[in-house]
Structures are given as C-alpha cells and as structure tokens.
C-alpha cells in the first residue's frame, strides 16, 4: 500500500510514474545521492526547497503535464509575501510611451532568428486545420521544407545560445520537437503538393494575426489553410519588414502592415464584420492592461458574427514570472513585469483573460491552463511552465444599444 508521501511525490511529478512508460530511460545509479530541486521554491525565495528523491525517479521525462493546482499552492504564498517593490509611475509611463521602440529594437537586433516557427497551432485550434492533419502529417511537411535539417538545427542552437533574455516561449517549441523526433515517421504522402492555394478574391475565409512579429505563426499555417486569406500586423516596423521579406510572402495570400492596436484603429481595408478568425499568440501579455478594452473592442468590431479569437499566452506563476520575482525591481503592476530589454510581460489567470473578453461582448467557449513540468537532468532541476489558452466567440446575435433592436446574422466562420 502506498504511503501518503509516495502519493504526494507522484502528484508532484505530474504523472503516474509506475503506470506510464516514457521514451527516455535513465540509470538511477548515475543520480545516486542527488535530488531534483523544484525551481518554483527557489525563485520564490522559500527557505526550504522542495525536492524529489532520486530513487523515486525510475525514468526521465523532459516535458510532461503537471497539475496546475499543485503549482499554484507551492508558489502563491511566497509571491504574495515577496512582491512589494513596484516601479514608479514615472518609469512605468516611460516604458508605456516607448513600448513600440523597445520591440522595434528587439526585431532590428534579432531579426527572424529569435522565435521558432509555431508549427503546432493548427493542432490546437481546429478552425486552422481544415484538412484535419495529424501530428505525423504535419511533421513530414515541415521536415520536407528544411533543405538541410542538420544545418538548420545548428543555426537554431547558435541563435538560442546568443539570445537568452526574452526567449522563454522557445522552450515549449524546442521540447515539442524533441518529443516528436523520438519516433521516426516515414514519408508516405507529400499531401501539400496536391493542394491548390486560393487567391484573395477566391478565398473562403479570412484570418488576422495580431502582433505577428517576424511571421513565426502566420507562415507555418499558410500552406495548411490554402482556402483562407491572411492579414498580419505588428506595431514594430522592423517586424513587418521581416514578414514582407520572407520568401513565402505573397500578397495573393497575405497582407502585412504596421498598426499599433493598443492606440489605433485598424486600417480602412480591414472592414467591420469581415474577419473569420483572429490569432493572438503571446501578444496580449505585451500590452498594458489599461489598453485591453481598446484592443479587444477593436478586434470585436473586425470579426464577423460567429467569428472566433484564439489566444495563447503566459499564465500566472509561470517560471518566467518567478524569475522576475527573484530579480526584484521588475514589477510594473499586478501580474505585469519589465524585461531587461524594455519589453513587458503580463501573466494571466484564466479568469482575468475570460473577463477581459466578455467585458467587450465576447462569449467564452473555453479558457484554460496548460501547465508543463520541464526537467533539466544535467542541472537536476525541475521547472514549471504555465500558459493560458482561450477561444472567444463574437455572438451571432447582437443588441444595438442605439435603437434597442436585435440583429441576427448567419455565421460564415470557417470550420
């Protein structure tokens, strides 16, 4: 019969150690006398670090699901006690006014080498996967697109080593790739060679990405969505230049433009009620919370009734937030922090994310956490990553407050 401690350790590891085989197995003799250190307690300043005894780890997983409630319990009290130092209002306003400049310098320095391509979005968001591609079919396609995978992997490694300040998000993509490489998949069908891409005047749906950066999200899903037309914008002119200089940029399928959605309206060619799907991938967190209403109201106006917004962003108590806590002097406001390069990051609870969208009229289809445990075997540390994911829908039926009438519109949202 399992003891209480054994049960807790299994919960802490985030999975059933005895009931699930892992892809990598390690010899515990190599770890004799060592303990895995929980970085949550380290960064939050706890006097006693939580650890897992090496004999209880029969195998090694670098990336696994873990229970959110446990992460929350281990960090909340430390964060509430420690977070007292806040940047002055004068400094906060300075970074708000110069937000575009900091991101523009970021893309000028890093170009398109910083973030990895997000080749997984269509697997998470079904409206972006009209051909119902599975993970294996996706992997075959993106592997084929790499002319020299070994050189590509080497270049990515060098870029990651040279850019560690703002690179938290890449840990997720890198570990997804490691998991996928564990199984060899033979190339059986190059499905993409038989796909006909529709031009703008022929398209059957429209997608808009807010805060597109260098195009790491929009370009991977262009081919997978041949029937859709795409808009992508960023408030950094250098980021938009990178998108337009991409070899796959073609205005028959994609229009990129500069827009600061935190302070401006969308350009005239983005008409009200014209967009089927909007993507917000690690972008709302870079915007001051005071601007959320304006940003989301603007997106709401652009969507067709029945249109959807997909969100993926940083969650409260993510490892990145604990790093800010450890450094001190980085807090701009509640859940809002300053990076050393002048860019900013907000950490969401699912409730805050949901409330922000519902305030401007959206209906929440889901708002949830994705929480992972990342282990570094060499350093014997265990780290938690927390993201929020959401799908928000513009209702088919809207009430006109000016004349108290209700209008019903049939959805043309791409399924």
UniProtKB/TrEMBL annotation:
Task: Determine if Signal is one of this entry's keywords.
Answer: no
* Species of the source: Tieghemostelium lacteum (Slime mold)
GO MF annotations in UniProt: RNA methyltransferase activity; S-adenosylmethionine-dependent methyltransferase activity
Biological function: S-adenosyl-L-methionine-dependent methyltransferase.
Report residue spans for region: Disordered: 1-29, 146-181
Q: Which family does it belong to?
A: Belongs to the methyltransferase superfamily. METL family.
EC number, UniProt record: 2.1.1.-
**PANTHER family cross-referenced by the UniProt entry:** METHYLTRANSFERASE-RELATED, TRNA N(3)-METHYLCYTIDINE METHYLTRANSFERASE METTL6
* GO biological process: one example: methylation
* Low complexity composition bias: residue spans: 155-165
Task: Check the record and name the InterPro entries matching this protein.
Answer: Methyltransf_12 (IPR013217), METTL2/6/8-like (IPR026113), SAM-dependent_MTases_sf (IPR029063)
Enumerate the spans annotated as Methyltransferase type domain.
208-309
UniProt keyword terms in alphabetical order: Methyltransferase, Transferase
Please name the SUPFAM superfamilies in this protein's record: S-adenosyl-L-methionine-dependent methyltransferases (SSF53335)
Q: What is this protein called?
A: tRNA N(3)-methylcytidine methyltransferase
Cytoplasm: present as a keyword of the record? Answer: no
């Amino acid at each position: 019969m399992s003891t209480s401690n054994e049960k807790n350790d299994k919960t802490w590891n985030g999975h059933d150690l005895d009931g699930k085989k892992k892809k990598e197995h390690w010899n515990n003799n190599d770890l004799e006398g060592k303990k895995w250190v929980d970085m949550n307690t380290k960064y939050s300043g706890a006097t006693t670090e939580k650890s897992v005894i090496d004999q209880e780890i029969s195998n090694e997983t670098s990336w696994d699901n873990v229970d959110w409630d446990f992460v929350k319990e281990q960090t909340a009290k430390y964060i509430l006690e420690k977070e007292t130092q806040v940047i002055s209002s004068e400094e906060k306003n300075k970074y708000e006014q110069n937000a575009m400049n900091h991101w523009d310098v970021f893309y000028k320095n890093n170009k398109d080498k910083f973030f990895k391509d997000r080749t997984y979005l269509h697997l998470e968001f079904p409206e972006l996967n009209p051909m119902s591609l599975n993970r294996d079919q996706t992997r075959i396609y993106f592997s084929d697109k790499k002319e020299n995978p070994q050189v590509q992997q080497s270049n990515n490694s060098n870029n990651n080593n040279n850019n560690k300040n703002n690179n938290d998000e890449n840990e997720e993509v890198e570990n997804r790739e490691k998991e996928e490489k564990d199984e060899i998949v033979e190339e059986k069908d190059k499905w993409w060679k038989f796909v006909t891409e529709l031009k703008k005047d022929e398209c059957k749906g429209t997608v808009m990405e807010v805060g597109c950066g260098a195009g790491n999200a929009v370009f991977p899903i262009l081919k997978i969505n041949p029937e859709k037309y795409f808009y992508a914008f960023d408030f950094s002119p250098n980021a938009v230049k990178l998108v337009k200089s991409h070899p796959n940029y073609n205005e028959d399928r994609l229009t990129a433009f500069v827009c600061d959605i935190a302070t401006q309206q969308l350009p005239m060619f983005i008409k009200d009620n014209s967009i089927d799907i909007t993507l917000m991938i690690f972008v709302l967190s870079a915007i001051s919370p005071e601007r959320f209403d304006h940003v989301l109201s603007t997106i709401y106006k652009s969507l067709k009734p029945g249109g959807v917004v997909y969100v993926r962003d940083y969650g409260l108590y993510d490892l990145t937030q604990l790093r800010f806590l450890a450094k001190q002097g980085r807090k701009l406001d509640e859940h809002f922090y300053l990076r050393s390069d002048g860019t900013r990051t907000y950490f969401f609870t699912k409730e805050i994310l949901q409330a922000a969208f519902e305030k401007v009229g959206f209906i929440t289809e889901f708002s949830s956490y994705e929480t992972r445990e990342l282990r570094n075997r060499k350093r014997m540390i265990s780290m938690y990553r927390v993201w929020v994911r959401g799908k928000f829908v513009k209702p088919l039926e809207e009430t006109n407050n000016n004349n108290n009438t209700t209008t019903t519109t049939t959805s043309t949202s791409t399924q």
